[in-house]
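ingest -> validate -> predict -> emit
validate: passed (alphabet ok, no gaps, 247 aa)
predict: started
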Amino acid sequence: MLKSERKHIILEKVIKERIVSIEDLVQELNSSESTVRRDLDELEAENKLRRIHGGAESLHSLQEEESNKDKAIKNVQEKSAIAKKAAELIKDFEVVFIDAGTTNELLVHELANPTVTVVTNSIHHAASLVERDIPTVIIGGMVKTSTDASIGGIALNQIGQLSFDRAFIGMNGVDLESYSTPDLEEGAVKRAILENAKNTYILLDSSKLGRTSFVKVAPVKRATIITNASDTEILSKLKEKTEVIEV
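emit:
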């Protein structure tokens, strides 16, 4: 297969699926891993896609955001491993905030300790926690339907009146300076959660590393990162600025 044909197929796949892995491309193109990597590097140099750990993703706008329904089917194994590690950090009798989001939804499924009190801004998280007989406090406000997150003044006011032993927050991206998310109001809520927690953890699968969104939530040093990514240049640099827990 000619290089131009391979690159055309890669671009079509990236546009359709948004994120592609090198392993899948090797099989689909019947090419070597080194050949696929070179093609991806060239396409990135042409500003047609962005390289990420283990593959590539489509270029996105700063305010672009997928719905939870779309996110839930991506990187499930990675998110599950991150959620399991996060659950191990929670101790008896702690008050824990669990942010809305698909990785945190998997964290909720890992919990079974009735001595822990969980505060959440997600209706679906709250329902799952109640089914598990875990003491639950739900934050009110306007519900953002795409992410199932309570946002707005009511949410900010309620969060501001509480304190948490630990908070587990989802983000759309992290670069070498800050954590970020596409939505102004959701960014404000995440910032409030972080400011009221003794220990904050940002749950990030490898597709979020090096990615920047519209709203800067907090400097990298303000939280511990839990991620599955390893042996990447950006992760090495992040470790110089904050604690990173790899799974």
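The mean pLDDT is 90.
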